[in-house]
Write a structure and sequence with these properties.
There is one protein chain. The protein has helices at about 5-25, 95-105, 120-130, 170-175, 205-210, 215-220, 225-235, 250-255, 280-290, 300-310, 370-380, 385-390, 395-405, 415-420, 430-435, 440-445, 450-470, and strands spanning about 80-85, 110-115, 135-140, 155, 180, 185, 195-205, 245, 260-265, 270-275, 295, 310-320, 335-340, 350-355, 360, 410. With about 475 residues, it is of the alpha/beta class. It folds into two domains: about 20-40 and about 195-355 and about 385-475, D-Maltodextrin-Binding Protein, domain 2; about 80-195 and about 355-380, Periplasmic binding protein-like II (D-Maltodextrin-Binding Protein, domain 2), CATH 3.40.190. The strands form five sheets. Strands 7, 8, 11, 12, 13, 14 and 16 form a seven-stranded mixed beta sheet that branches. A three-stranded antiparallel beta sheet has the order 3-15-4, with helices on one face. Helix 2 (about 95-105) packs across helix 11 (about 370-380). It is globular, with a radius of gyration of 22 Å.
C-alpha cells in the first residue's frame, strides 16, 4: 500500500517493479508456473488445471435463463460510442488486455484508457472535469484515489439505465459500502479480477531450509496471532545479519484488528475518530516493539528486494503480489507462500484488512449508459484468462477465497483520503508520531493528533452530507 512517509519511495518502487516486469518477465520466460504454494485454508482447491472460481447464484427471472446475455439488447445509441476509463494503469500490459481487446467485438462499444497519474488521481480528474474534459468511468483504490474523495467526481450509479443492481453478478455486501443516502455510487462484482485485500506473504525457501513452522501452519492450527507472527520474525532474524524478520505495514496490520485513526460506518454514512481505540494503541505499540528489536524493514522497495533474494521472511501487502505481473516478478514462484493476516490475540478472529477498490460513473459522464456495460464487462471474471493472471493456480484460488468475504468481515482504512481533505499529502499526518515513537510513547503520540483527526472527521462527514443534499437534483 502507498502509505504515509513512504509515498515517494513506493512510487519509485512502482516504477522499478514496472521495469522488472518488462525485463525479468521476458528473461525468466514469464512467471506463471503452476507450482503449489501453501495456502491459508485446507479446503482451497489445488487443482492445477484451472483457477477454481467460487460459484455464485444465478438468480431468478431473466437471470435464471440458460441463454441470458446481458449484452444482447444494447441500444443502437450506445454502439459505436467510446467509453473512457480513467485509470493510472496501462491495462494493455496487464491481464486487462484481454477484455479490452474483446469488449468492442462483444458489445459494439469502444473503450479508451484515459490515463492520469495515480498520485493526485481525484484532484486531477476534478480539474479536467471542471474544464469539460469528462471521462466516463472512475475507480477507487487506496490513498488519494480513495473514497470519500471520489464523492467529488461521481454520480449515482443506480440511476444509469444500463446498470441493473438486481443482476446477481454484483457483490451485494460491497454495494452497500458504496451507498450514500438514497443512492449507490460504487460497485464491484463477486469474483472480481480487480479487488483489493491484504495478506501475509512468506518466503518458503527460508522456512523449508531451516525447518521453521510457516505462517500457514500456524493459521491451520488456529494459532496465527500477532504474537506468533513476531515469533516467526525472531526466528528468521536470528539466522544472521543478512536476514530480517519481515516488513510489517502498521496500517495494514491494524486493519486486521479493525483499527485506524478514522473509522467509517457505511451503514450510517458517518466517520468518527478512533484515537481512543484499544486496538489502535495495540497496533502501534506492537509496531514499535518490532522496530526496537530490529525485526522489520520500513520501506517497501527494500522489502521486495530482500524477499525476492531470500533474505526477508514475511511481508504484509496486497493481492498484487498474487498477480503474475505483480510485486514478485522474476522470483521462483514456488517459493512464495501466502496466508491470512494474523488475529490480534488468542480467541479473536482477524478481519480482512482491505482496499476499497470499487467502480463508478463520473458526474455528467458523456456516455454513462455505454459505461454501464463496460463496468460489468470489465469486472466479469469470465472475460479474463485467469490461469495467466496469477502467479499460480493455487494463488488464484487463494485470491478468490480472500476477496469473496462479505464486507462485514473486511476493514477499510480511509485515513489517507481523510488527511487529504484537510490539506495533508498522506496519512502520515496522523501516523507520524506513532510510527516512530517507542512503545511507551505511543499513547502520547496518538493523542497528540486528536484535534487533527477531529478536523478530518468533520470534513469527511461534511462531504457526505453535501453529497446527500445534492441528491435532490436527481429527483
Amino acid at each position: 500500500m502507498i502509505r504515509s512517509k513512504h509515498f515517494v519511495v513506493r512510487m519509485l518502487a512502482a516504477v522499478m517493479m514496472l521495469c522488472l516486469t518488462l525485463c525479468l518477465f521476458v528473461g525468466c520466460g514469464g512467471s506463471t508456473a503452476d507450482t503449489s504454494s501453501d495456502v491459508g485454508s485446507a479446503d482451497i482447491s489445488s487443482d492445477q488445471g484451472s483457477v477454481q472460481v467460487p460459484s455464485q447464484e444465478q438468480g431468478s427471472g431473466i437471470y435464471s435463463e440458460d441463454d441470458y446475455d446481458p449484452y444482447a439488447k444494447i441500444p443502437e445509441s450506445s454502439k459505436g460510442v467510446t467509453v473512457r476509463y480513467a485509470t493510472w494503469i496501462d491495462h494493455t500490459a496487464t491481464e486487462g488486455a484481454k477484455p479490452l481487446g474483446s469488449f468492442h467485438k462483444d458489445t459494439g462499444i469502444n473503450v479508451e484508457l484515459y490515463l492520469v497519474p495515480q498520485n493526485g488521481y481525484v484532484n486531477t480528474l476534478m480539474t479536467k472535469m471542471a474544464s469539460g474534459d469528462i471521462p466516463d468511468v472512475y475507480v477507487t483504490s487506496e490513498d488519494n484515489q480513495s473514497f470519500p474523495l471520489t464523492l467529488q467526481i461521481g454520480a449515482p450509479i443506480d440511476l444509469v439505465s444500463t446498470v441493473d443492481l438486481n443482476d446477481p453478478i454484483w457483490d451485494r455486501s460491497m454495494l452497500e459500502t458504496g451507498k450514500i443516502g438514497n443512492h449507490y455510487y460504487l460497485l464491484n462484482t463477486l469474483n472480481s479480477p480487480w479487488s483489493g485485500s491484504n495478506l501475509v506473504y512468506y518466503n518458503k525457501s527460508i522456512f523449508e531450509e531451516n525447518g521453521f513452522k510457516t505462517p500457514a501452519d500456524y493459521y491451520a492450527e488456529g494459532n496465527w496471532t500477532w504474537n506468533t507472527m513476531k515469533k516467526v520474525m525472531k526466528e528468521i532474524d536470528a539466522l544472521g545479519d543478512d536476514y530480517i524478520g519481515g516488513y510489517i505495514d502498521p496500517e495494514i496490520l491494524g486493519g486486521s484488528a479493525g483499527a485506524s485513526f478514522i473509522n467509517y460506518n457505511y451503514k450510517s454514512n458517518t466517520f468518527s475518530s478512533m484515537v481512543n481505540s484499544r486496538e489502535l494503541l495495540s497496533t502501534y505499540q506492537f509496531y514499535a516493539d518490532l522496530r526496537t528489536e530490529g525485526l522489520t524493514t520500513t520501506t517497501l522497495i527494500e522489502s521486495i528486494q530482500k524477499f525476492c533474494n531470500g533474505r526477508l521472511g514475511i511481508m504484509t501487502t496486497g493481492v498484487y503480489g498474487l498477480k503474475a505481473t505483480g510485486h514478485f516478478v522474476g522470483m521462483d514462484q514456488s517459493k512464495i507462500g501466502y496466508t491470512y493476516l494474523p488475529a490480534l490475540e488468542d480467541g479473536t478472529k482477524g478481519l480482512t484488512s482491505s482496499i476499497h477498490r470499487m467502480y463508478g460513473i463520473c458526474a455528467k459522464a458523456p456516455n454513462a449508459d455505454a459505461a454501464g456495460y463496460f463496468i460489468r464487462y470489465w469486472l466479469d471474471y469470465k472475460n479474463y484468462d485467469l490461469e495467466s493472471t496469477f502467479i499460480s493456480i493455487d494463488a488464484g484460488n487463494f485470491y478468490y477465497e480472500l476477496i469473496n468475504q462479505g464486507a462485514e468481515n473486511k476493514y477499510f482504512n480511509f485515513d489517507f483520503a481523510c488527511a487529504n481533505l484537510i490539506g495533508h499529502d498522506n496519512s502520515y499526518a496522523f501516523t507520524r508520531g506513532a510510527r516512530t515513537s517507542p512503545s511507551a510513547g505511543t499513547k502520547t503520540a496518538i493523542d497528540s493528533v486528536s484535534n487533527l483527526v477531529d478536523d478530518a472527521v468533520k470534513k469527511a462527514n461534511a462531504l457526505v452530507e453535501t453529497t446527500i443534499k445534492n441528491q435532490s437534483e436527481y429527483k
